[in-house]
């Protein structure tokens, strides 16, 4: 059965490297790219966002289309520009971000009273992140969550990654929004460090809380440490293979999410899907930037 997947969020121009190179990225877009590479035309991947009407936005749209992403649900706002971020990477591959996004096309679009029923029409699954939630003004975030709940009641699937950026919103707002998403989501991809920053718990307490809120399939990501996957009454720890040389950890979690979800769609067990997530993330962090070369993708 064909699954039509929509990923909602903001993608931006990326500056990184020495000398600086211009690329692009954004957490949900990174996941969209890696999903599209794995699923191909069998399961169309749509990106739900906004760009400007400028030449930079034209270039971004062309690049994403070349990656196999369906872009007809990307709005084009007159006089607006895409956001921008700069990445600094240390010797261990850990990164630090600097953002120029407050006036981006996507931020204006998120604040503009979207028709979510029309945006989600014809989709079978919607993926979003904690960053997506943070970029919506509070009243529009409330409408988004209500729309996702309605989508879920109509047999749509909701996939949520808790990706958290404290500079974007107060922790109390994140805590409230995340709890509502865990009550809606079919699958929750939870980075433990981020979740601890929001809720203060970890380990079994974290898992029990998310389960109690209603989510039945949970993957707790812990970087290079084993991930824990919980589904169908089973809880399994799945180790990652060591990576000798980490170049850039950007998009590690985003690519993990893409590989996990793609594997699950293609019939893998949760444990095997977690192994797929580890494998792709382990490759991605050996390349600079969020998007590694297509030829490096695992078969």
From TrEMBL:
Task: Point out the signal peptide segment.
Answer: none
* Entry-linked InterPro entries: Carboh/pur_kinase_PfkB_CS (IPR002173), PfkB_Carbo_kinase (IPR050306), PfkB_dom (IPR011611), Ribokinase-like (IPR029056)
> Which keywords does this chain's UniProt record carry?
Kinase, Transferase
Q: Domain named Carbohydrate kinase PfkB: which ranges?
A: 20-292
Keyword Transcription listed? The answer is no
According to its UniProt record, which protein family does this protein belong to? Belongs to the carbohydrate kinase PfkB family.
Name of the protein: Ketodeoxygluconokinase
- Which organism encodes this protein? Jeongeupia chitinilytica
Q: What is the lineage of its organism?
A: Bacteria, Pseudomonadati, Pseudomonadota, Betaproteobacteria, Neisseriales
């Amino acid at each position: 059965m064909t699954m039509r997947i929509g990923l909602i969020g903001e993608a931006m121009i990326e500056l990184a490297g020495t000398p600086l190179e211009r690329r692009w990225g954004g957490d949900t877009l990174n996941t969209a790219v890696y999903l599209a590479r794995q699923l191909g035309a069998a399961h169309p991947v749509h990106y739900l966002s906004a760009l400007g009407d400028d030449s930079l936005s034209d270039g971004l749209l062309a690049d994403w289309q070349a990656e196999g992403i369906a872009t007809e649900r990307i709005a084009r706002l007159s006089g607006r520009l895409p956001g921008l971020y700069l990445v600094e990477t240390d010797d261990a591959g850990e990164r630090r971000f600097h953002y120029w996004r407050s006036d981006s096309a996507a931020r204006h679009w998120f604040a503009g009273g979207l028709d979510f029923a029309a945006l989600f029409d014809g989709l079978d699954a919607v993926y979003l992140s904690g960053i997506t939630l943070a970029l919506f003004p509070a009243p529009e975030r409330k409408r988004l969550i209500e729309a996702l709940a309605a989508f879920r009641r109509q047999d749509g699937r909701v996939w949520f990654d808790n990706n958290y950026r404290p500079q974007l919103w107060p922790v109390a707002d994140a805590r409230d929004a995340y709890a509502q998403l865990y009550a809606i989501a079919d699958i929750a991809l939870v980075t433990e460090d981020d979740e601890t920053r929001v809720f203060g718990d970890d380990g079994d307490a974290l898992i029990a809380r998310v389960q109690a809120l209603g989510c039945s399939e949970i993957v707790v990501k812990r970087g290079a440490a084993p991930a824990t996957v919980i589904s169908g009454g089973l809880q399994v720890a799945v180790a990652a293979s060591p990576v000798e040389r980490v170049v850039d950890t950007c998009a590690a979690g985003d690519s993990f999410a893409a590989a996990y979800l793609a594997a699950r769609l293609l019939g893998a067990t949760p444990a095997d899907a977690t192994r797929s997530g580890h494998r792709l993330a382990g490759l991605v962090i050996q390349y600079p930037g969020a998007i590694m070369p297509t030829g490096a993708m695992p078969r």
